[in-house]
């Protein structure tokens, strides 16, 4: 697979599915509801949507454009488009960040795998909410089970990356994405019919402006970056496998909308379920792992629903983790002439080792706190709320002020000559995004 000629997506649909596959993952189904509950419900959701429109979608376009133009990995994109400068350092920041994200992402995905196996054996079926909360604590806090789950998940990720992104992922995504959507719609129907659900729906939708503050804004920016796979070269790398005819603006919008739709769906399932089943929001990272099995248990055939759901969640995480690993593999393969197998395998092992403290962060290492967060939450926080927006900020500054918006527009018009939003897009990249991110950084921290 490490030929000289760069691989390209087999079809437009394949590209969209792979990119949506990268965006849709634990960020939508696990992280979004968790952050919404922590950060004040409707107020947060509103902020999230505003950031999606003004920062998220324009940035998806920016990354795809840079990648397609350079046809290179994240580091070489900067060094090719701005030769002689130090911008390639941003590429290394990106590689470090995706590596750190994958180290804890694989831990949560490992829980999903364990929940899948547990569901198959009916382990959750007889439990009530208190029992489910307890079992979550036992699984996530176990001295080695989470490490095992993390290892299994990373192994699967490495295998897919080795076989090349165009094969496998494109096909898997076609089955899995619709599958997840169907199960989630069933779940939504079920939650909404439960008594007391409506209070949760209102809490989710009603923006209580008093709850909005600047650290909420930082959380919301972090969530958009994480969920859209932005700021660290994942979409840029996927864009580099694009051929010139592709319509970038249309795809960017499609990716953004699908991602938001799945996140909102997950929120509308999980939040009302908290109200119905009286789950304490203190479960934190485990909210989804407690509320969803609780809803499944109200359905006939709960074992089947629950197994299917956690299997699909694991796969959704897999299509995302592949994109995380691909960022650094593409660099080693392009620039250092490694073969894919060595690059993916080596990085996989390294990620596993670095991720072990996160895997133990709910149990053996639960008392190790940084800024009041356990190891996993801390790495999640610094990567999502700091490194990703920082990477996004540097990327737009690069595109809008260094490389040049005319070149960017020329690249976009190649695949979509009728694109009418060129000027507003440029304005957003030049002024709105940099100022917004800077403002949120400065005020969010002080
Ligand atoms: N977007 C994915 C999710 O929501 C996670 C992810 C994949 C990601 N690739 C990324 C996050 C690159 C940041 C950067 O689950």
Task: Provide structural commentary.
This protein has one domain: Hydantoin permease, CATH 1.10.4160.10. Helix 1 runs parallel beside helix 12 and helix 9 crosses helix 12. The model has no long low-confidence stretch (mean pLDDT 90). The radius of gyration is 21 Å and the shape is globular. With 446 residues, the protein is an all-alpha fold. The termini are far apart. It is built from 17 helices and no strands. Bound molecules: tryptophan. Tryptophan (TRP) binds next to helix 1, helix 2, helix 5, helix 10 and helix 14.
CATH class: Mainly Alpha
The total domain count is 1
What class, by secondary structure content? Answer: mainly alpha
In total, how many beta strands? 0
Task: Supply the number of helical segments.
Answer: 17
**C-alpha termini separation:** 49 Å
Stated plainly, the CATH topology is called Hydantoin permease
Helix proportion range: over 70%
- Low-pLDDT stretches are none
- Look at the structure and give the mean pLDDT: 90
> Architecture in CATH?
Orthogonal Bundle
Largest sheet: none
Residues in β-strands, percent: under 5%
Q: What is the assigned CATH homologous superfamily?
A: Hydantoin permease
CA gyration radius, whole angstroms: 21 Å
What's the assembly state of these chains?
A: single chain
Q: Helices and strands, in N-to-C order?
A: HHHHHHHHHHHHHHHHH
């Amino acid at each position: 697979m490490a030929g000289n000629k760069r691989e390209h997506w087999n079809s437009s649909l394949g590209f969209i599915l792979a990119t949506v596959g990268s965006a849709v993952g634990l960020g939508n189904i696990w992280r979004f509801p968790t952050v919404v509950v922590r950060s004040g419900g409707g107020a947060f959701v509103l902020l999230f949507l505003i950031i999606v429109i003004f920062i998220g979608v324009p940035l998806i376009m920016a990354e795809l454009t840079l990648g397609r133009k350079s046809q290179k990995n994240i580091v070489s994109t900067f060094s090719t488009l701005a030769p002689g400068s130090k911008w390639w350092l941003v590429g290394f920041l990106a590689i470090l960040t995706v590596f750190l994200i994958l180290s804890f992402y694989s831990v949560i995905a490992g829980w999903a795998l364990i929940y899948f196996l547990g569901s198959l054996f009916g382990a959750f079926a007889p439990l009530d909410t208190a029992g489910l909360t307890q079992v979550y604590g036992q699984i996530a806090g176990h001295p080695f089970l989470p490490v095992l789950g993390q290892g299994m998940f990373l192994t699967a990720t490495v295998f897919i990356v080795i076989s090349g992104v165009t094969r496998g992922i494109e096909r898997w995504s076609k089955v899995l994405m619709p599958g997840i959507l169907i199960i989630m719609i069933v779940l939504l129907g079920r939650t909404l019919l439960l008594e007391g659900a409506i209070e949760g729906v209102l809490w989710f939708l009603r923006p209580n402006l008093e709850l909005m503050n600047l650290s909420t804004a930082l959380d919301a920016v972090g969530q958009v970056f994480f969920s859209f796979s932005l700021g660290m070269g994942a979409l840029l790398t996927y864009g580099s496998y694009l051929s010139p005819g592709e319509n970038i603006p249309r795809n960017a919008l499609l990716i953004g909308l699908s991602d938001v739709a799945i996140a909102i769906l997950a929120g509308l399932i999980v939040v009302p379920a908290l109200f119905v089943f009286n789950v304490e929001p203190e479960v934190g990272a485990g909210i989804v792992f407690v509320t969803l099995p609780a809803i499944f248990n109200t359905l006939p055939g709960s074992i089947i629903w629950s197994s299917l759901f956690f299997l699909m969640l694991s796969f959704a995480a897999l299509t995302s983790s592949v994109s995380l690993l691909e960022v650094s593999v593409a660099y080693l393969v392009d620039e250092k002439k490694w073969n894919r197998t060595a690059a993916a395998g080596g990085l996989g092992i390294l990620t596993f080792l670095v991720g072990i403290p996160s895997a133990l962060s709910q149990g053996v290492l639960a008392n190790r706190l940084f800024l009041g967060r356990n190891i996993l939450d801390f790495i999640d926080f610094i990567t999502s709320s700091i490194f990703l927006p920082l990477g996004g900020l540097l990327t737009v500054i690069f595109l809008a002020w260094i490389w040049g918006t005319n070149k960017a527009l020329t690249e976009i018009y190649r695949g979509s000559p009728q694109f009418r939003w060129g000027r507003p897009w440029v304005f957003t990249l030049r002024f709105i995004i940099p100022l917004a991110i800077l403002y949120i950084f400065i005020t969010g921290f002080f």
